[in-house]
Structure formats: C-alpha cells, structure tokens
Amino acid sequence: MNVLITGGNGFIGSHTCVELIEAGYDVIVMDNLSNSEGENVKKIEKITGKKLCFYNTDMLDYSGVDRIFKENEISGVIHFAGLKAVGESVEKPLEYYENNITGTINICKAMKENGCKRMVFSSSATVYGTSGKVPLVETLPTSATNPYGFTKVMIERILKDLCIADPEWSVMLLRYFNPIGAHESGVIGEKPKGMPNNLIPVISKVAMGEMPYVMVYGNDYNTPDGTGVRDYIHVADLAVGHIKAMEYLLSHKGSEAVNLGTGKGTSVLEIIKAYENACGKEIPYKFVKKRSGDVAVCYADTTKAKELLGWEAKFGIERMCIDSWRFTQKK
C-alpha cells in the first residue's frame, strides 16, 4: 500500500516514515525542505534499509502535487507539511494562511482528482485555544490564539466539510500535544533550522554549550512548581499513532478527531531536571515573563485514542530525554 507523506523529511514526518516502512507500507515523501535537513531522507533509508521515493515539491505548486499522484498509485495521505512557528505566524499571518490552508486545499484537490480519499491530518492541541479545562477532550469547541492555530482550526473544518459533502472520504484529525525525543538509533531527531522555538531543542543547545541558559516563561502559574505544565509525548509513540490512524481509515468513512498525548502533565522544571539526568550536566535556566496566550496546564484526555485506535503512549519523560540527548550528541 502506497502512502504519501507530505512534510515527510521533518521531525515527526521522518519518524513516521520509519514506522510505516517497518510496518510494511510503501512510502512516498513530498517535502520542500524549507524547515528540515535534506539528509533526513538518507537517514530514513539508513535506518530502514529501504530506498525512498522522494519529491522536492511545494504544496503550493498544484501541478507538482498532482504529478506525484499521477506517477504513483497512492492509497492514503499523511499530511504533515506546513509552517508551524507560533511567533512567526503572528508576524507573517498572510504567509501562514496562504501556505497552510491553500497548500492543504491543493493536496485535497489532487487527491480528489486522482481518486484518493483517505487522509490523516497533522493537527494540534492548539485548536483547543485557552480552554483552561483539563484534561482536554475532543468534544470541546475549537478556537485559537494565533494565526498558526487558526490554520489548524480552519483546515479541520475544511476536511470535516469535505467528508460531509462526499461520504466516500475518510479523514483522521490527529491533535498532537508536545512531541519530543528521537529515534532510538540517534540517527534522526528534532533539528530545526535557525533558532529553535520548542523547549527540548533549546535545552539541548544549552547542554551542548551553544546557548547560556534556558528561558523559562513564567514561574507563578498555579502549578506545583509555578512553571507551565504540558503533555509531552515521545515522537516514536506519535509515529505509531499515525499507523493506527491509517489502519482505522481503511475500514471507516467520515471524519474523527483524536488526541495523541500521554494524558499526563510535566512542568518545564521537571523536563529540565529529566534532561539533566539524561545528559549528566547542569542545565542553567532563567525565569522571564510569561508569553501572551500561554495557559498554566495543558494535557490530553487519551480515552478516545485507546478506544478507537487501540493506541496509547508507551514511553515516559526519562526515555524521551535520553533519546533526545543521544541524538543531540550525534548530530
């Protein structure tokens, strides 16, 4: 079975490619390499021992996207491609709306044109906005606090409407929480271009002596240690969730939204401590003012993932940090 992975050269995409190949799927990767290292394709091949079919194609290029479907008999799409930096989305809203929404529409049009009506969409817990209710359950209303988040909300709506208009479509909206960690081989992991936006890449740079300290945004939240609490999930667990989602779509029509998280919250200081244990070094940090729109606590209700997909996270924070540090030392 051929599966197209858009954004398959990125952090989550590359790990999902590995899991899919090892599960027996044939993988086709589409990526414009705008926010990921080009060597990931070769690294995936190194881990799996399989040659990848790769297209350096931008999803805003409809003819390029359509060509991929014309040249391959694709049974399903896992759609990761998109701009994803919250701060940058506030500065460049038009770029985010055009890229993420128009790009997704192009993919859906090409799918429809070529008779492929099965998609797993990379959504996010950001669609819950500042709900403040925990654990976050899929039945909560969706909203957002920034353009990046709104692109996820809008794309979810587009895909739901597509399923209503054509009952032959099968769509899974996977709402991720906070993916961290790396492949156990240390060959692939999180390596963003430029200054990192996420916590673990910042911590790893501090551990390597490339940054002086970790900036911790706020220390007076109503949490046990005053720092923000989030649901961190190992990227390998997340990747397996996509296989379970694709398997579900093989025998079900319509759309479903499903959280992928551990169902447990971990504070920023607890993450820093776990990383210190993993790397054997002190990680200096400095408290700075809170960021606008950040909530104190955010973690998933994972009941639906267990019941619908038969999936649950296996790895804990210590393992996530150990795998991340192994990759950091090798990269």
Task: Name some characteristics of this structure.
331 residues; alpha/beta; Rossmann fold; seven-stranded parallel sheet; three-stranded mixed sheet; globular
3D shape? globular
| Quaternary structure annotation | single chain
Give the topology string: H per helix, E per strand: EHEHEHEHHEHEEHEEEHEEHEEHH
Q: Give the CA-CA distance, first to last residue.
A: 32 Å
> Roughly what percent helix?
40-55%
CATH class of the domain at 2-183 and 233-262: Alpha Beta
Rg of Cα set: 19 Å
Runs in which pLDDT lies below 50 for 5 or more consecutive residues are: none
Strand order of the largest sheet: 3-2-1-4-5-6-11
Total strands: 14
Mean pLDDT comes to 95
- In terms of DSSP E residues, the strand content is 15-25%
Classification by helices and strands: alpha/beta
The CATH homologous superfamily of the domain at 2-183 and 233-262 corresponds to NAD(P)-binding Rossmann-like Domain
Question: Quick one: biggest sheet?
Answer: 7 strands, parallel
Could you walk me through the main structural features you see in this protein, from its secondary elements to its overall organization?
The chain is an alpha/beta fold. 40% of the residues lie in helices and 18% in strands. Strand 5 (118-124), helix 6 (147-165) and strand 6 form a beta-alpha-beta unit. The longest helix has 21 residues, at 93-113. The two termini are 32 Å apart.
